[in-house]
Each structure stands twice: as C-alpha cells, then as structure tokens.
Design brief:
77% helix; mainly alpha; single chain; 3 helices
C-alpha cells in the first residue's frame, strides 16, 4: 500500500526553512485579517445604507399639517390695503 502523497500546502511548507515558514504564516494571517476587516466594513456600509433608506422613507411619510387661516400673500395684501387706507386719510 502506497502512502498518500502530501498535499500542496504540506509540500510548500516543507520546502521552506523555519524562518520562511514564519514569514509565510505572518503574511497569511495578515491577508486573513484584511479580508475580515473588509468584510466587516462592507457589512457596516450595508447596514448604514439600510438605515438611511429607512430614515428617508419615514421622512417622506411625515405629513406637515396644513395651516388654517390666510396665507402669507393674503396677509401681506391686507397690510398693504391698511397702509393705503392710512395714507389716504393722512393726505390733504
């Protein structure tokens, strides 16, 4: 019965001297950490995007109560009419 040949990671690690193994392990850990960090950032961005869409949707649903009474232009017209009446009374 033949022994199974070593897998490529085993052959790769056995070809390295111990100091190179440490460097390879550090590089692999750094790449793994960078992948985890970018995954977390993507998840946070997705969550923030969902939250901002929810805020925009709820802001669009808010209804501003309609003000009863005259509009601003109507009030200004009334003031203008009163001022003209006062000017007519005061003029000789």
């Amino acid at each position: 019965m033949e022994p199974t040949p070593p897998t490529w990671p085993e052959r790769f690690m056995s070809a390295l001297v111990p100091s190179d193994r440490a460097v390879a392990l550090i590089i692999l850990l750094a790449v793994f950490a960078a992948g985890v960090a970018s995954g977390l950032k993507l998840a946070a961005n997705r969550e923030m995007g969902a939250m901002s869409r929810e805020v925009a949707r709820s802001a669009a649903e808010v209804q501003v109560p309609q003000r009863s009474g005259p509009t601003l232009s109507q009030r200004l017209d009334t003031i203008d009419e009163r001022l003209q009446a006062i000017e007519r009374r005061l003029s000789p």
